[in-house]
Amino acid sequence: MLDSLDGTISLIAPAKINLALHVTGRRSDGYHLLDSLVVFARFGDRVSVKRSAADTFEMSGTFGSRLPDDEDNLVLQARNALRRRFPEQAIPVAIHLEKYLPIASGIGGGSSDAAATLRALAALWRVEADVAQLAEIGLPLGADVPMCLQGRPLVAKGIGEDIERLAAFPHLPMVLANSGVSISTPQVFAVLERRDNPPLPEMPDLFTVGDVCTYLAETGNHLFSAAEKLTPAIGDTMNALQNTTPRLVRMSGSGGTCFAIYDSDADAEAAAAKLKQSNPDWFVVATNSVMEGD
Prior knowledge:
The chain is an alpha+beta fold. Helix content is 30%, strand content 27%.
């Protein structure tokens, strides 16, 4: 968290990476039950908040012009939800969202923006709300908001609200890539062929990149086939990443962002440079995972 001289509080809203995502069932209300191993990248959007005479909201960044700036934006929904819970402390605020993550791309950009907004405003307004209380406020905004409030390696179950943080998890060098596709998560779930898959296998202690990749080989992303059916271009992204000789390639969430894991940050940087050169219009970034204690 950055607190500047003018009172601005600024937070990174990191990309959420589903290393593995199993669909294990479906509730009577239509929500799907998941079992997912999740990490967060050091790369993401940025949310900044400060006191103001009246509420304002502005956006910038690579993808800022592609989002609504009205009440459909999850940042404003998060502001309004926290204000309803703490009306006496909720003074007017100026919010600035720097949007660097592609829209509707399977890496939790909107949910992470909402989570960062809740955390930043809770600090600015000095409300007494811990992560669990913020998660309760954020869950109606999206099932991914509670896990994005954690921002550290975790296993998420249920619809995403049942969270177990992982105290020990290795540093993962990775590349995120998206060829420019946006995918509707409800549409992906609608064309799933199976919704009663087994949960993630029991997780051993994971100390190295090799340990993680060995474990992930026993898992999958059960949304991949449905997403690729809707948007075949995801296969092109997967193939392009595979050509950079990573340890593992997979789609995150409901797509269409894919990720590749490498042995070192230098390998990830070299792979990203190669991918950008051959696909200059793609979203490509070399990053690594945030670990507990960072």
